[in-house]
Specification:
Layout (H helix, E strand, L loop, with lengths): L1 H12 L3 H17 L2 E7 L6 H20 L8 E7 L4 H13 L5 E4 L3 H14 L3 E3 L14 E3 L4 H14 L4 E6 L3 H13 L6 E7 L8 H8 L5 E5 L4 H11 L6 E3 L6 H7 L7 E4 L15 H14 L5 H20 L4 H9 L4 E2 L4 E2 L15 E6 L2 E4 L2
Parallel strand pairs: 1-2, 1-3, 3-4, 4-5, 6-7, 6-8, 8-9
Antiparallel strand pairs: 10-13, 11-12, 13-14
Length: about 400
């Protein structure tokens, strides 16, 4: 095809208009019969695979469903994805491949904050719409023209947690966090927001996400006058922290971030998870929502389809649902896959009811969710309980 196009260009330079007409006709036919390529890079292996696995399954399930219904703008969707194992360098390499070799029309992916942050310069330079599935507020603040996201931010999580603590008259808190990109960003947001809620951080401990025991840090916390513990992290580490807290006989309220909002955390922490509070997307408590909640039909539909095919649903798969359909609706409104037009339409997303909330984006907000999109939940008898 490329040789034909080059010949056509030379023909044009020589004034042979008929050759150019044939070339343009051939190129138009190829474009008309082509697919709309959705690129994705996900943590399918490694410690963050509990994020990437449900994300990929969700994308595959709905791309298949959309195609069965005729696709988008008369074209089938084609999902092109790569595994990053949660590694930033790998993410850079595969995103370059998605753009340069696979020539995707847009990207929905980035399971972790670290891999997402690593590729922002690339997508901005190449001017390709990118909807991230990661949590850090740094992904969208300050606003980057071509970058959007669907999960609630770490700053929102910290605010929701501190709001709950304030209701419970808790003012002295021990903070413990991991060393990953999400953890560090969450740590920074907690320190920044705490004074605004009258919260005094009386201990600030950290661990390596690969550690298998955090009793040393928790023993130090036990010696303080903290009235609650907040662990900001994801993966296996928060489950270990939760177990260690119980093993040490610490009776303080224990809070976790939305990074543990999956059944996997409860399985890993076991009975120790009971009593843990955290902010989470409404998906995990869909049945407990009032019937007039606009999200409830969307959540129950997604949950039914996913669980019938793959098993227990997670909020992380829900982020992929939101990203895919925000992209699809933007393409429909644009009437084409012109990257600039699709980007503009993503930014104009209004009233989109997703699993994470009702999205209302704009030039200054590439997430479009308020704090009310978060639900505060507590684990009770190994299950999620909606508090408010």
């Amino acid at each position: 095809m490329y040789r034909t196009m080059i010949k056509g260009l030379f023909a044009c330079m020589l004034g042979i208009s008929s050759a150019l007409v044939l070339t343009l006709s051939a190129a138009s036919a190829v474009h008309a019969s082509g697919t709309i390529k959705i690129g994705s890079f996900l943590a399918l292996t490694g410690p963050a695979s509990f994020l990437g696995d449900p994300e990929l399954k969700t994308l595959q399930m709905y791309v298949g469903e959309i195609n069965q219904k005729g696709g988008v703008l008369g074209k089938k969707l084609e999902l092109v994805y790569y595994d990053t194992s949660g590694k930033a360098k790998v993410a850079k390499d595969v995103v370059k491949r998605l753009i340069k070799k696979d020539r995707v029309d847009l990207i929905v992916g980035g399971s972790t904050s670290g891999t997402t942050l690593a590729v922002i310069d690339i997508v901005e330079r190449e001017k390709i719409p990118f909807i991230s599935l990661a949590g850090s507020i740094r992904i969208i603040k300050p606003v980057k023209k071509w970058v959007f996201k669907t999960p609630h931010t770490d700053r929102m999580a910290a605010a929701k947690i501190f709001e709950d603590m304030k209701k419970r008259n808790i003012s002295k808190v021990a903070l413990i966090t991991g060393n990953g990109g999400f953890d560090k960003s969450g740590h920074a947001q907690c320190l920044d927001l705490a004074p605004k809620y009258g919260i005094n951080i009386v201990a600030d401990e950290s661990y390596n996400n690969a550690d298998t025991d955090m009793t040393t840090q928790l023993t130090k916390i036990r010696a303080t006058d903290a009235k609650a513990i907040l662990n900001f992290g994801f993966g296996k580490a928060p489950a270990i922290v939760t177990k260690n807290v119980r093993q040490l006989g610490i009776k303080l309220p224990l809070y976790q971030s939305h990074g543990v909002a999956s059944k996997k955390f409860i399985e890993l922490a076991g009975d120790a998870a009971n009593g843990v509070r955290l902010p989470a997307a409404a998906l995990i408590v869909a049945e407990q929502l009032p019937d007039n909640d606009p999200q409830k039909p969307v959540l129950l539909s997604y949950k039914k389809k996913y669980e019938a095919k793959y098993g227990p649903v997670s909020t992380f798969g829900g982020h992929a649902y939101d990203g895919l359909f925000i992209a699809v609706e933007a393409i429909k409104r644009a009437g084409c896959v012109d990257k600039a037009k699709v980007r503009d339409e993503i930014e104009k997303t209004k009233g989109f009811v997703g699993t994470g909330g009702v999205f209302n984006m704009g030039p200054d907000d590439h997430l479009g969710l308020g704090l009310d999109a978060f639900k505060m939940v507590e684990i009770e008898n190994g299950a999620w309980k909606l508090l408010y």
